[in-house]
Structure formats: C-alpha cells, structure tokens
TrEMBL record:
The keyword Transmembrane helix applies. The chain crosses the membrane at residues 123-145, 157-175. This is Lipoprotein. Keywords: Membrane, Transmembrane, Transmembrane helix. It comes from the Bacteria.
Length: 210
C-alpha cells in the first residue's frame, strides 16, 4: 500500500482540482454586449403621478399611458453613477455564474439528457471533460495494480482532451480572452505532467525489478 504513494497522492490531487474553477464559458466581451450591460440612461424617468389607464374599446382591455419627464442634470449624473455600479456588480456576478469547475463541465449536461443533445456541438466539448474525470478515477484505481504504463497513456490523453475542449471553445468564440481560463485549469495541467513524470519513474523501477 505504501508503494508509489506519491503517484497515488498526485492522482488524488487531480480529483480535488476538478472542484476548482476551470473555465469561464462566456467572455467579458459577450457579457458587455448584452442588453443588460449596454443599456444607457436617457435622462427620462416615468412620471407616475400623470400615468393614465385608459380603456381600449378594440382590445377590450385597459391600456396604460405612461408619461416621462426629464430629470435635472445633477439627478441624471447620480442615476448614471448608480447605474454604472449596478452594471459592474451584474458583470461580476455574471462572470461568476459562467465560471465552472470540471465536474460541472463534465456532468451537468447529463442531468436532463435527451437524444437531441447529440446534435449539439457543446455536448462534445463537455464529453472531453467527462472522459478526463472518468480516466482520472480509473488511473487512481489502477495505481494500486501498478499499471504505470496505462497511467502514462491515460494522463497524456487527459491533456489531449483538455486542449481539444479548449480549442473547440475558442473556435466557437466562447473563449475570447486568456483570462477566461482559470487557475484550476493550469493546476490540472501541471499536476498531469507531474503524474506522467512520476509514472515514468515508477515504471522504470518496476522494469528493473522484473
């Protein structure tokens, strides 16, 4: 059990890294182009006192006639400043909402899975993360069986799957800024390289014993 303990630890660390932020799947540029962020205060506010409700004989429902008044220059500046702060808060919250860990990216799409998902290009991007997580669990299990060569192959494939998913997201313009790639992503790449290096060492040691 105490053999290749460093390798087992490294693989276990990968399983923990999966819970850290990996990718922001919507760019800041896209969020800033959304109506919620782009809308600007015109200087007009609704005059609630003079708002009228008129019966529409054609539609047979009440129509609300709204009146708008222009605010003072000082009041306009206050509203614009408040609006700017609210937009920055909205942007921050939206970035957090679109930032996911590997477990979310790998398994969220299966919660309400339908056959039509096979026609959705994002499904195949998510599939890369599913395979990464499954492979890592298998790597942990076979580390007890000293299957070091298989671990080298699977860890290398994990990096291929990760880079494939990243390239697809870039191609689909879901990643437009390097800042969308979060620290969990880099930690996983580093840890995967360490797993490969450690597996090679263990494989050489095993070969000398046989």
């Amino acid at each position: 059990m105490k053999e290749n303990i460093r390798l087992k630890t490294l693989i276990s660390i990968s399983l923990l890294i999966f819970s850290l932020p990996f990718l922001q799947t919507c760019s800041d540029k896209s969020l800033k182009n959304s109506p919620a962020y782009k809308s600007e205060f015109t200087g007009l506010v609704e005059d609630s006192i003079n708002t009228k409700i008129v019966y529409n004989a054609v539609s047979k429902i009440n129509d609300t006639i709204r009146n708008y008044v222009e605010v003072s220059k000082i009041e306009k500046q206050k509203i614009i400043a408040k609006d700017k702060i609210e937009k920055e808060i909205w942007l921050k919250n939206s970035k957090k909402e679109f930032t996911h860990n590997a477990y979310f990216l790998g398994f969220e799409s299966y919660k309400n899975f339908e056959i039509r998902f096979f026609a959705d290009k994002t499904f195949y991007m998510m599939l890369n993360f599913t395979l990464i997580i499954i492979f890592t669990f298998i790597m942990f299990l076979i580390s007890f069986l000293k299957k070091f060569k298989q671990i080298i192959i699977m860890s290398s494939l994990n990096l291929v799957f990760l880079f494939t998913a990243t390239i697809l997201l870039c191609f689909w313009e879901q990643i437009e800024d390097i800042r969308q790639i979060k620290y969990g992503y880099y930690l996983f790449v580093l840890n995967s390289i360490l797993i490969i290096v450690e597996s090679r060492k263990e494989y050489k040691i095993l070969k000398t014993k046989t």
